[in-house]
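Review form for a predicted model. The reviewer records the input and the model, then writes brief findings.
Reviewer: anonymous (R2)
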Amino acid sequence: MPIDAEKLGKRLKQLEGQLPGSFVDLADNNPFIALLEGVEGLGASDALRAQLVRRPLATVSVQAGMTINELKHLKNLHMGSTSNYRLSESLQAELRRLRSIGLITSKRAIYEMPDEFDLGEWMELTGRGEDYLRRWGE
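Model under review:
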């Protein structure tokens, strides 16, 4: 059956209008892309698209996997309480994870952090990070 490009374009435009702004972050999520490819092979892509419109996976998955320390870093950046941070491998891993999911951005390279530092000089909360705190930061 030939694809009507004009109809498809209209359907995609309609779908895009229903998606949250954070949906584009899923384009960098390799496991999610693999899931979509598998779903497409099963012919169930319309059902998955409908679910994504009703309940965006990006926000839900971030909230479910957030550690207490990661939330503390976000709150500290938000409130400006960023002094007296001490370097550790676990801290660097937490910051890398927050950066990879788009809640913070790096001002400088994480691997260059000194033993003691002000987090605000190294990291910045993104708009998505601010949104996350408004929703889940209680």
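Findings: Helices lie at 5-18, 30-42, 45-54, 57-65, 68-79, 89-100, 127-136.
Further findings: DSSP finds seven helices and four strands in the chain.
Recommendation: see findings above.
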